[in-house]
Amino acid sequence: MDFALNQFFAGLSIASILLLIALGLAIIYGTMGVINLAHGEFVMIGAYSAWFLQTSMGLNILLSLPLVFLVVALMGLAIERGVVRWLYHRPLDTILATWGIGIVIEQLVRLILGSTSRYVEGPSMLGGNVEIAGATLSIYRLFLIVFSLMVVLGTWYLMRRTEFGMKLRAVIQNKEISECYGIRSENVYAVTFAFGAGLAGIAGALVTPLISVTPGMGTYLVVDAFLVVILGGVGSLLGTVVASGLVGEATALFSFLFNDTIGRVAVLMAIIIIIRFRPQGLFPDKVRR
Question: What one-character DSSP code corresponds to residue 166?
Fold first, then answer.
């Protein structure tokens, strides 16, 4: 029982990190049709923001989350207003533009801060382990699991129970008709892009106690997030949650049976096979026009 629980918990901890990263990507990709290749750099900026706030102002990760969200959201808003807004309905140009923006952001960080790895301490109140049914579980990883579910619930409430969410769903279903009713789709898109970027920043901040902070960390993390979004179904919140869980548990299982490299390859092959027979994903969005 303790072995099975340890493996299940390891998969959930991986899934929670994937979910935090993929959620912002799914919102931007699903609602706006924008493949944002700079999403990994938003994660990286969030991590560096958490490091700066801790080393310069003494704020732990939990206290720095609102500031991290605000910083990365404003960066996302500036990018959307300055570049992305001119490239809607031009997916190839959007891919090229966001890819270039990501490279610029990464190289600027290298020039200003260097390539040295930075480290962030986790909150002292969430340090240590707890035993459940004979299994030793990290308190911080348990917090990540709970926090990621809270973020999902908050996002669902925003999209389904608020005036902004109603406008967003209207724009998704029919942009032209919604504009006839006075909804400014460009403002909806801008806020959505900023919100998705802010979620990526929070993900980057929360992952810092687990991995070192480097300029290239976002590229490594966002690859699996793209796989999660595609597997779950573009624009599907439920699909993102389920796909994160499946990928996280499969990664933990295959990594234990073989090693990390073979585990990643096995998970990738499984996703390719699923997409081959179900290219729309597990829970496709049926309302996007």
Answer: H
